[in-house]
Amino acid sequence: MEILASEFFQRALIGGVLIGITAPLMGIFLVLRRLSMIGDTLSHVSIAGVALGFLLGVYPVAVGLIFAIIASFFIEKLRKTYKSYAELSIAIIMSGGVALASILFTMGRGYNVNVNGYLFGSILTLDNVDLITIAVVTVVVLVAIISQQKELFLLTFDEDAAAVSGLPVRFYNVMISVLTALVISASIKIVGALLVSALLTIPAACSLIIARSFRQSVITVVVIGELAVVLGLVLAGVWNLAPGGTIVLLLIVIMLVLMLLKRGMRMGS
Amino acid sequence: MQNNSCHQDIITLEDVSFSYQNQAVHKGLNFSVKERDFIGLIGSNGAGKTTLLRMIVGLLKPESGMIRLFGQPVSQFKDWDRIGYVPQKNSFNPLFPATVREVVLSGLYSRNKLFRKITKADQKKCDDALHAMNIEDLAVKRIGELSGGQQQRVFLARALINNPSLLILDEPTVGIDSETQEGFFHMIKHMHQHHNITFLMVSHDMEMIRSYLGQQPAAESGKLKFYKKHSHELQDCVENDLTHSLKELRQQMESRREVVTVGDLS
Question: Residue A239's domain is classified under what CATH number?
């Protein structure tokens, strides 16, 4: 229990509370537009950036962030090229990211670094620079989403209607991809690059079970995201578990409970 | 928003061509739609109905030629709140968590605006549009829970909330039972006959189109047929308050408790 009072755990908790808001919030727009795999793609590309960061001796999260942003532009470009097969762009960039990461990690075999922390998350490694990065990303994401929430709703519900209403659809698509890239890069130290996309998608999957309006969906994803992140970090701290894995398994448990509750309510009515 | 200058050009197509993967869909297409005209577009699958519609609203760019909306090239057109658009019924995910009210209000989100607030006036417009479409009881329902006919009323309410000058409808009655289709057409015709609205409607229902717009197409291009009711065939009386007028229509229909057929009104 002493671990909960430690400085590094407090930092992880503050960082976790912030990504518990932003990651599920971005996830709802991706899931409802059937672009859930974008999170996975960007996180895999950001691993390549992290690897390059270590190789060059530059802040790895920043390089991961730059890689993810570049990848988000490529996804949009390929989505346009393969319009009817948009998921192709995701498959191409995801495998490209993993390929690059594997080569960069091989090249940097000499350096002594705990790669596992970036892949599966860690509460021990979050420093003040990471915390400031997460805080800045949170502010950027919240301002962007809150200031454009109505337009983003229309875009998510009906992209054609949004275009006919005169909304700059291409700008919004790029904005969503870039914001997702920011959130993922800021989250990988806590949740891990291999698991971060679950924090985007599973709360949205839960909201589809219970929410009856878009407003309820937004509230639901944030509440579920926070619950899983805070509880997950505490459990991971107390029992010395991988935080990413604990958070994701908790999210899956929450989703299963909601599914059972809904089924029970249906049978009861 | 309504323009009272008589018979202004609303849509103009000048020598418009479009092809998909080197296969010509439209070649040298010319036509114009005047204020208060009603254009019904009919054609077999692959005739290019939806392609044409998507070019008109700027979702697709023609290979050559020029499309104008209200006299301006589509690429420079800014007054999108003058256009109401009703998409095909199947263009949204039925599991999407959105209420009817949220969907109807989204008709007001033309032009991006930072920190947009829904005002009381916006809520009133939404209430009026819901009432006019007889769906006020469904306001808090999830859109995916509604029947096809109810969903089309929701999309029509969203299109009408801005009091548009041009209504574009893309196969609005696909998958809806025939009685509901008749009611829907009856409402559309009422709007055309009593209000300053221009219509462009893609439909698969030739009988409905012919019964209102005449037996012979005004123009043909490839497999596409353009049926047309000219604005000069209509009476001048134009009511200003669309939602009020639709409420009256609804009350009339309810009080008479009659099924009005398409033929009765054409």
Answer: 1.10.3470.10
